[in-house]
Design a protein that fits this description.
two-stranded antiparallel sheet; globular
């Protein structure tokens, strides 16, 4: 597989009580993307795929907040997760909303084919947070 066709993943963390906006906690391509996705799957965290959302989030730096311009995109993803989260409700504590925002920690993982990506390891302390995957 050529470098330009490798899988890509972006992991986001959001806690309405702590974070102003979702935060990029890990990103990578190739084997790093696979590791991010594997962690989500091993933890029983839902995997969500969306090429257009992934393409918008792929250029964000690790540690940065999602910009205001992407709030609507990320909110739509969270809404879809809530709609298909019957499995989550059975395996994890229920997702509660607070003034329209998800109040428990979620971790978003976005997978996308993209040629330019900085590889980052998933921090140990962030690997316990919930996730979803896009691609």
């Amino acid at each position: 597989m050529s470098k330009s066709r490798k899988n890509k993943a972006v992991a986001l963390k959001y806690n309405a009580e702590e974070d102003v906006a979702p935060v990029v906690i890990a990103s990578g391509y190739g084997t790093i993307a696979e590791k991010i996705i594997d962690i989500a799957e091993q933890k029983g965290i839902p995997v969500f795929k969306d090429d257009s959302a992934a393409s918008l989030m792929c250029m964000l730096e690790v540690g940065s907040n999602i910009p205001v311009e992407l709030y609507e995109v990320v909110a739509a993803i969270y809404r879809q997760l809530l709609e298909i989260s019957a499995d989550i409700k059975n395996k994890h504590k229920p997702i509660e909303t607070k003034t329209g925002r998800i109040s428990n920690k979620l971790n978003l993982v976005s997978q996308r084919n993209h040629p330019d990506m900085i590889e980052e390891e998933v921090p140990e302390d962030e690997q316990q947070v919930g996730s979803f995957v896009e691609g």
